[in-house]
């Protein structure tokens, strides 16, 4: 992928993530990543810096950078979708209706009902 196209795509994705977090903040849902989330965020930032700052001539290194960028793009788009689903749940007028999903998430240690 060309560097300019990759930069433009990342600017759009980061703007979408920022807008999503801002929309959640406006309805009272705050995101507080734990230590592992912060480590992953810093690793993603370092990977992006590496992929934008290096002009590589080695084919294998370029393939690794492209693979990592693809995985980061997929993760960022999935994160936007997940965060927007929480925003939708927060602003919709209906009451809580999915007890089985809540029980499954509670078994995984995620109490999202406490948000509402």
Automatic annotation (TrEMBL):
Keywords: Membrane, Transmembrane, Transmembrane helix. It comes from the Bacteria. The chain crosses the membrane at residues 7-28, 34-52, 64-88. This is Uncharacterized protein. It comes from Novosphingobium kalidii.
């Amino acid at each position: 992928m060309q560097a300019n196209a990759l930069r433009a795509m990342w600017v759009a994705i980061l703007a979408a993530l920022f807008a999503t977090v801002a929309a959640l903040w406006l309805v009272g849902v705050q995101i507080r990543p734990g230590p592992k989330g912060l480590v992953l965020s810093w690793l993603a930032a370092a990977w992006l810096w590496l992929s934008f700052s290096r002009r590589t001539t080695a084919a294998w290194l370029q393939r690794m950078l492209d693979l990592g960028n693809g995985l980061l793009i997929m993760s960022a788009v999935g994160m936007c979708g997940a965060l927007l689903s929480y925003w939708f749940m927060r602003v919709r007028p209906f009451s809580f209706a999915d007890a089985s999903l809540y029980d499954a998430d509670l078994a995984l240690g995620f109490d999202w009902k406490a948000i509402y």
